[in-house]
Every structure is written in structure tokens, then in C-alpha cells.
Design brief:
This is RecF/RecN/SMC N-terminal domain-containing protein. The protein is mainly alpha-helical and 232 residues long. Helices cover 62% and strands 7% of the residues.
Amino acid sequence: SFNLLQRYLCVLQRELRARRIQKLGTLPPTAELQTHRGLSISALMRELEKTNKKLKSYSHVNKKAFDQFVNFNEQREALLKRKKEVDKGIRKVKELIESLDCQKDGAINRTFCSVSAHFKDVFKELVPSGAGELIMKTSLDEDEDLDEELNEEIIRRKQNPSVSKYCSIGIKVRFSNVGENHMMSQLSGGQKSLLAMALIFAIQRCDPAPFYLFDELDQALDSTYRKAVTGL
């Protein structure tokens, strides 16, 4: 029991000394401590008194400034490391977004080309003497009236338009071998119904289903085209 008590007292003394050392702040390097190792206690006390007098002239200085500097510097390094990781993550996300955008643009262009090709075929089956096509309208179409110096740039962009430039889809058709192409606004109600069905059939040919069910399909059609529709 005596040994346990002595051990307990030693632990208390060690903790007390550790707290006192902590209050002193940052300790000097070992090389400076070696210069005072051979001095007597009285000499050390005189040196301590001189040092305390010098320290009084720095009483307005924060004694823990160096410790705070070290602490803040460590936090700064940790934050910089974290920033690098975040920047790397941002680059990866941007690369993923660009990749997905490219895949999306490719899918949209492929789908439009496929529907457009099927629309030509379907319209040709419905109107053998005519022709029809889908037109992708872009915001670049509105730039045609700009300065002539920009025409070459506009033409180049039209050849490889970005999906973000797409604004609508138009239909241009001709119902006879001769004559001008007509836009939707110039067609009759029966012709518009025929075009709507041609577009529906073109979309369905891109993604065929086992069977299709239509209700009163030929109600708005002209009698000329009813037989052609039933032939599909």
C-alpha cells in the first residue's frame, strides 16, 4: 500500500510539472538548454531574474502568439489539402458532366436522324408523288441577317450544331412531283392530320411495338389518303 501511495504521489507531481511546463509556452531548443546546464543554482537564478526583467518589456506581446501561429498554420495546411481534394473532385464532376452531355447530344442527334429518315419513308408511302422531311431549327437560323463577315462562321456552326442551339422542329412537305414545298401553316386540316400520322408512324418505327391500336384513325383524313393509311 505504501508503494501505491508513493506511486500516486509521483503521478500527481508529474501532472503538476506538466501543467507548469505547459503554462511556460513553447520551450527553447535543446541547444540553448545545453548552454545553461553547467551553471550553479545561484547563477541560474541570476539569469532567470535578468530574463524576467527583459520579459517585462514585452508584457504587451501575446505570449501564446507562436503557439497560435503553429496551430493556425497546421489548420491552414489541412484546409489547403482539403481544397486540393475538393478541386480534384470538381474536375472529376465536370468531366462526368461533359461526358454525359456528349452522350446526350449524340443520342438526340441519332434519334432525330432516325425519325427524320423514317418520316421520309412513311410520307413517301402515304403520298407516292410527294416528299417530306423534318427540319431541326436552331437559334443560328436567326443569325442569317447579321454581318456578311459572320456568314462563314454561321455556316460552319450549322454543319455541326450544338444541341443547346436546337429550338424547334419544322416539317417541309410537297404533295406532288412539281410545285413548292409547304410548311405546316400552309396546309389544310386533312393534310395536317396526314402529317401527324406520318410522324407518329416514323417514331414508332424507331421503337417498334408488338401491335398498335388506333381509334377513328381516318376521321379527319381526306378520302384520297384513307386507302394509303390502311395500307401501312
